[in-house]
Specification:
The complex is a heterodimer. By secondary structure, chain A is mainly beta. Helix content of chain A is 0%, strand content 59%. Chain A is globular, with a radius of gyration of 13 Å. By secondary structure, chain B is an all-beta fold. In chain B, the strands form 2 sheets. In chain B, strands 2, 4, 5, 6, 9, 10 and 11 form a 7-stranded mixed beta sheet that branches. Classes of the chains: A mainly beta, B mainly beta.
Chain lengths: 112, 112
């Protein structure tokens, strides 16, 4: 089955700096890669996603890049703000099914 | 519009008791998923429905876990003879399109 690795597990940045979270996946058939933001005690919130036929996608301060050859994808957050502080999860869906396989999460802390 | 809702939000069960967790998906969403999230971990897939058909139950950890969606809308996850290792947050997600999954707030189950 699919295996998704995520790093770093914790990331601390100063407000206004950029943050990058990286994930790798094992199944070359995976074709959809969402990112979720989860605040403490809250539901995972879909913030951006990318499909395997696209190399990059951007939505305001958030962007995701995908390298199919290397089987890795990354989340980039620019001009970080305190409200960006949360746990971020990457995930992958294999083409044969719809279930999400999640990474282990990155605790992002944006400091003033 | 209304998002995915789950009830109860918190459930405390004594070991050996049966529990039933409810999920109300977003209206019109065909696909429904259940995930288990242990403390500090990413969600792990349990089972998947398309309308009333359970298409994948490969993630259910034992035969004590059972899920149903009889009318293709509301779903119930039932855990029989609960054990301490069942303590976790149980998340439900629904999807209209093939891949974009929207999560409910979860039910935090504590087995004492």
């Amino acid at each position: 089955g699919e295996n998704v690795e995520q790093h770093p597990s914790t990331l601390s940045v100063q407000e206004g700096d950029s943050a990058v979270i990286k994930c790798t996946y094992s199944d070359s058939a995976s074709n959809y890669f969402p990112w979720y933001k989860q605040e403490l005690g809250k539901r995972p919130q879909l913030i951006i996603d990318i499909r395997s036929n696209v190399g990059e996608k951007k939505d305001q301060r958030i962007a995701v890049t995908l390298n199919k050859t290397a089987k890795h994808f990354s989340l980039h957050i620019t001009e970080t703000q305190p409200e960006d502080s949360a746990v971020y999860f990457c995930a992958a869906v294999t083409g044969g099914g719809n279930k999400l396989t999640f990474g282990t999460g990155t605790q992002l802390k944006v400091e003033l | 519009g209304a998002g995915v809702s789950q009830s109860p939000r918190y459930k405390v069960a004594k070991r050996g008791q049966d529990v039933a967790l409810r999920c109300d998906p977003i209206s019109g969403h065909v696909s429904l998923f259940w995930y288990q999230q242990a403390l500090g971990q990413g969600p792990e897939f349990l089972t998947y429905f398309q309308n009333e058909a359970q298409l994948d139950k490969s993630g259910l950890p034992s035969d004590r876990f059972f899920a149903e969606r009889p009318e293709g809308s509301v779903s119930t996850l039932k855990i029989q003879r609960t054990q301490q290792e069942d303590s976790a947050v149980y998340l439900c997600a629904s999807s209209l399109k093939a891949y974009e999954q929207y999560f409910g707030p979860g039910t935090r189950l504590t087995v004492t």
